[in-house]
Amino acid sequence: QVQLVESGGGLVQPGGSLRLSCLASGLTFSWFTMGWFRQAPGKEREFVAAISWSGDSTYHADSVKGRFTISRDNAKNTVYLQMNSLKPEDTAVYYCAARFRARPDNITPQFWGQGTQVTVSS
């Protein structure tokens, strides 16, 4: 079955950086658009970023544009989220998601990971 396993979350000070990873199995990774979503306490899950199956197209939410960068390595079945200049409002559980050949600006996930906690606090 499809598994998406996130890693790399943790506690970081404001202004710091983290890199999240998501290892996919049980699917043909290079056929799937991959995305990152997040959910803060008491809030709805929101889109963060997505990358096309080939990696040639990305889309980032306005709230993270210029600070976060999504990338992928199809040889490693892994998608990454580099997060720089982190703010307390970035605190959330971050989820990896996949959808077969969706446009990065219109990804409705078919598969979800279990999430990894990111906490930005001094």
**Uncertain regions: pLDDT < 50 for 5+ in a row?**
none
Rounded radius of gyration (Å)? 13 Å
The largest β sheet comes out as:
7 strands, mixed
Structural class: mainly beta
Q: Please tell me the overall pLDDT.
A: 97
The counted number of beta strands is 11
Shape: globular
**Roughly what percent helix?**
under 10%
Name the helix and strand elements from N-terminus to C-terminus, one letter apiece: EEEEEEEEEEE
Proportion of residues in extended strands: over 45%
Distance between the termini: 40 Å
Annotation field: number of helices: 0
Keywords:
globular; 50% strand; mainly beta; 122 residues; 11 strands; seven-stranded mixed sheet; single chain; four-stranded antiparallel sheet
Task: Spell out the blueprint of helices and strands.
Elements: E1 3-7, E2 10-12, E3 18-25, E4 32-39, E5 46-51, E6 58-60, E7 68-73, E8 78-83, E9 92-100, E10 111-112, E11 116-120
Parallel strand pairs: 2-11
Antiparallel strand pairs: 1-3, 3-8, 4-5, 4-9, 5-6, 7-8, 9-10, 9-11
Description:
With 122 residues, this protein is mostly beta strands. Helices cover 0% and strands 50% of the residues. It has strands at 3-7, 10-12, 18-25, 32-39, 46-51, 58-60, 68-73, 78-83, 92-100, 111-112, 116-120. The strands form two sheets. Strands 2, 4, 5, 6, 9, 10 and 11 form a seven-stranded mixed beta sheet that branches. A four-stranded antiparallel beta sheet has the order 1-3-8-7, with no helix packed on it. Strand 4 (32-39) and strand 5 form a beta hairpin. The N and C termini lie far apart (40 Å). The model has no long low-confidence stretch (mean pLDDT 97).
